[in-house]
Amino acid sequence: FMPGCAIPALIGGMAQSYKKSSTHEIKPETNVLDGKSFAVLVSTDRSIEETAPGLTATFLSRITERLASPQNDAGTTGVVPPGMVLQYMYDHPGWRAKSMTDLAKDLGGVQRLVFVEVSEFRTMEPGNKYLYDGVAAGTVAVVDADSELSDFYSFEKTILVKYPDEQGHRPDEIPEAAVRTELMRRFVDRATWPFITHQEPYYPKY
C-alpha cells in the first residue's frame, strides 16, 4: 500500500527521469529558407584552420547537406554544391569584401546566402595541453540576396558549444580526435537547428 501523498511524488520523479533520457520535438525558429535556393559560406580564422585543418570544408559540406536534405523541412528549393562553393572561396580569397548581391550572382544567382562564421575552435584550455576544455563558437546568419535589404541579415544567431561536458578529462582518457569530432557535430547541430524541425533533449548538454 502506498500513501496517497506519495503517488504524485513518485509520478513526478518518473517524469523527471524520463525527461532526462528523452527528447522532444522543436519547430524551426525561422522559415527564411523556405521556398528559396541557397548557398552556405563558412568563414574561419586562419589560426583556427591551422590547428584544425579541413574544418571549413567539413562545416560547409555538413551544414549544406542538412539544409538541402528533403528529409528536413527547411524548405530549400535549390543549392550550390559545397565543392563549388569551396572552389569559389579558394579562387576568390577576397570574397568577404564583396557585396552580398555580387556574391549571390557569382554563386549562380541564389536567393539566400547562409553565412557561418567560426570565431573559436579549440580542444584544450589555453596554455594547458594536459586538460580538455573544448569550445566551438561563432554565428550563423542569413542574407536575403534577392531583397533590397541584401546588406542586412534577415536572421542571425550566436553559437557556443562545449565538450567534454565534465571538466578534468585528459588526452589519455579521450583521443583528441574524438573531442574535435563531437565539437564539430554539436556546432553543426546548433547552426542548422534554427531552420529545421528537430529533436532536442529536455535537458540539453549543448
Description:
With 206 residues, the protein is an alpha/beta fold. It is built from six helices and seven strands, in the order H-E-E-H-H-E-H-H-E-E-E-H-E. A five-stranded mixed sheet has the order 3-2-4-5-6, sandwiched between helices. It has a two-stranded antiparallel sheet with strand order 1-7. A hairpin with an 8-residue loop joins strand 5 and strand 6. Helix 3 (55-68) packs across helix 4 (82-91) and helix 3 (55-68) packs parallel to helix 6. The chain is flat, with a radius of gyration of 20 Å. The termini are far apart.
Number of strands: 7
pLDDT < 50 runs, ≥5 residues: none
Report the end-to-end length measured between terminal Cα atoms: 42 Å
Secondary structure: helix percent: 25-40%
Averaged pLDDT: 91
Rg over alpha carbons: 20 Å
- Main sheet strand line-up: 3-2-4-5-6
Biggest sheet character: 5 strands, mixed
| Element-by-element helix/strand order | HEEHHEHHEEEHE
Identify the overall geometry. Answer: flat
Q: Report the sheet-strand fraction.
A: 25-35%
Classify the secondary structure makeup into a structural class. alpha/beta
By DSSP (H or I, 4+ residues per run), the number of helices equals: 6
List the helices and strands and how they pair.
Elements: H1 6-21, E1 23-26, E2 37-44, H2 46-51, H3 55-68, E3 78-79, H4 82-91, H5 100-106, E4 112-125, E5 128-144, E6 153-163, H6 176-192, E7 198-201
Parallel strand pairs: 2-3, 2-4
Antiparallel strand pairs: 1-7, 4-5, 5-6
